[in-house]
Amino acid sequence: MAVRKKFPKRKITVPKTCYFCKEKVEPKYSDIVPLQKFVSSQGKITARSRNGICAKHQRRLTSSVKHARHLALLPFVGQ
Ligand SMILES: [Zn+2]
Q: How remote is the CA of residue 60 from the centroid of ligand 1, in Å?
């Protein structure tokens, strides 16, 4: 059996608390600045395992990012 070369695991720091619960704000399509934090450079919405957002706010974030994309406030694809 071939020995698989192990790559060192990259450490991803995941915030323990939800950003929206902490700040006591709701994700809104018109507030682009907090939404941009959870969108990657490629324009993808980051996963809950990466951004530490609770399930309720992740659902609302997803729909508000999609709404903002439709209104051309956020890009569908990054550079
Ligand atoms: Zn939350």
A: 9
Digit-coded pLDDT (tens) for 26-64 = 999 999 999 999 999 999 999 999 889 999 999 999 999
Where are the domains positioned within the chain? 19-70
Residues having C-beta closer than 5 Å to ion ligand 1: 18, 20-21, 54, 57
CA–centroid distance for 3 within its chain = 36
Write down the CATH superfamily of domain 19-70: Ribosomal protein S18 (4.10.640.10)
pLDDT digits (tens, 9 = 90+) for 57-74: 999 999 999 999 999 999
